[in-house]
Amino acid sequence: MTARQVVAIDGPAASGKSTVAKVVAERLGVPFVSSGLLYRAATLVARSVGDGQPSAQELVEALKGRDVQLQARQDGNVIQLDGRDITEQLTQHGIDEQVSRVASMPDVRAWVDARLRDIEGPFVIDGRDMGTAVFPDAVAKVFLTADPEVRARRRVGERDQAFDEVVKAIIARDAKDAKQSAPASDALKVDTSRLSIDDVVTRVMAHVQDKFHAKQAAS
Ligand code: CDP
Fold first, then answer.
1. pTM of the full predicted structure?
2. I need a surface site. Which of 132, 138, 148, 191 has the fewest CB within 10 A?
3. Is the dihedral of CA 183, 38, 90, 175 positive or negative?
4. Pairing state of beta strands 123-127 and 32-34?
5. Domains, the chain, ranges and CATH?
6. 167-188, pLDDT tens digit by residue?
7. Angle at 20 between CA 94 and CA 29, to 5 degrees
């Protein structure tokens, strides 16, 4: 696969990236891939290693002994751990709280990146560093942002937490994820705070079409 067959949609927690990535993937008729689910799966595995706080080396060793499969489906992704569907467990706030620590480990990032680069394109992928570290030559790159309160309002129905707790958790995770969350210099940046999903999708699709045409013209 050439990375040019990838559309990368990055951004902080609840910025709308997975919702937008899913619709854009559907419009393009390609699968949608959630890179965050692999970090979440690594976090779940970490809990079962030693005292639940393994070093990066211990965790990567443990991951090598487990069968972690990411199934990229257009309507949502499924993660299987040793043949068991663990997807629902991965979006609980306990995992939200621990995932940034695990994701900050370079060895874990390398484990995730290798898996993502093995997925056959074309696809739309969402994450934090898809357009920078993992697929720097993606055909189109997007970085979505939104105010923390707006993001918390979007997320509150998906978590078993009160609004104020969700705002605090989002701000805390932004800080912990800052290192791996910078937009690519050639990404379309969209503040989604005051936009509907349809508005964001329209802008992203226009950007993707522009990039496809520019690539065709150049080849
Ligand atoms: O939707 P939300 O952003 O809450 O979650 P996610 O995309 O599943 O990402 C969960 C966590 O994984 C993030 O808070 C990051 O710590 C980490 N992550 C990352 O470091 N790099 C990525 N490309 C994707 C996720």
1. 0.95
2. 191
3. negative
4. parallel
5. 1-31+121-219 (3.40.50.300), 36-120 (3.40.50.300)
6. 999 999 999 999 889 999 999 9
7. 120
Reported as a pLDDT band with limits 50, 70 and 90, residue 217 is: confident
Nearest to 91 by CA among 78, 73, 82: 78
- Kindly give the number of the ligand 1 atom that is closest to the alpha carbon of 176: 16
pLDDT digits (tens, 9 = 90+) for 24-64: 999 999 999 999 999 999 999 999 999 999 999 999 999 99
Q: What percent of the chain has pLDDT over 90?
A: 87
What distance in angstroms lies between residue 50's CA and the mean position of ligand 1's atoms?
24
The verdict on the CB of residue 35 being under 6 Å from ligand 1 is yes
* CA-proximal residue: ligand 1, atom 14 (nearest): 100
Alpha-helical runs (H) found in 125-196: 148-155, 163-177
Distance 87 CA to ligand 1 centre (A): 14
Q: Is 148 in the pocket of ligand 1 (CB under 6 A)?
A: no
- Please tell me if the CB atom of residue 192 comes closer than 6 angstroms to any atom of ligand 1: no
> How far is residue 201's CA from residue 65's CA, in Å, rounded to a whole number?
40
3-state secondary structure of 1: coil
Rounded CA-CA distance 29/26 in Å is 5
Residue nearest to ligand 1 atom 12, measured at CA: 36
Question: Is 98's C-beta closer than 6 angstroms to any atom of ligand 1?
Answer: no
Distance 219 CA to ligand 1 centre (A): 34
Fill in the amino acid letter for 205: M
